[in-house]
């Protein structure tokens, strides 16, 4: 029982800590910077304020409202999965990975659900402000996700002799992302590097457990 409680609290603390930091950063950027404004920290690190309507790193593959609802369902499944992991006395490191992914998912869900109704529009000439609920720049579920971390580590022009891309400018690393995106990425990378087999085994264990309960 002691281990179950401690792992439950560990997961909760990770999720809440990341959510608080993520929202503090996003709100600070959104209420103090113009859209597309950039603050140079170093030659390879900028705070660059943009917004996107899509998933992590700005990807958009399905309608926004459907995407937001899908995110909520995904987060609900992860919460259920974490509960099963805690009861099964899973490895602490693996629980941390899944908690990072959950925290990142919820962080961007908050933007999508609430930001459109509590903030005015961010533009090139106006900084967003808090507004009465329902008087924001869009409706519930249609809020844009705030991104700000930009790491152009290096850039160069492709040689002119290369087909299709010759002479084009290339920047590494060009995506602009937020703290929630970073949490998801870290969780996935650590999982793939150290817990890939454990992930497969845990899914198999849960499937067998569900089958036995349905059969009984």
TrEMBL record:
One GO BP: proteolysis
Active site: 147, 181
Top-level lineage group: Bacteria
Enzyme class: hydrolase
Database matches in InterPro entries: Peptidase_A8 (IPR001872)
Protein keywords: Aspartyl protease, Cell membrane, Hydrolase, Membrane, Protease, Transmembrane, Transmembrane helix
Annotated membrane topology: Multi-pass membrane protein
This enzyme's EC code(s): 3.4.23.36
HAMAP family to which the protein is assigned, alphabetical: LspA
The family this protein is said to belong to: Belongs to the peptidase A8 family.
Name of protein: Lipoprotein signal peptidase
Organism: Phocaeicola massiliensis B84634 = Timone 84634 = DSM 17679 = JCM 13223
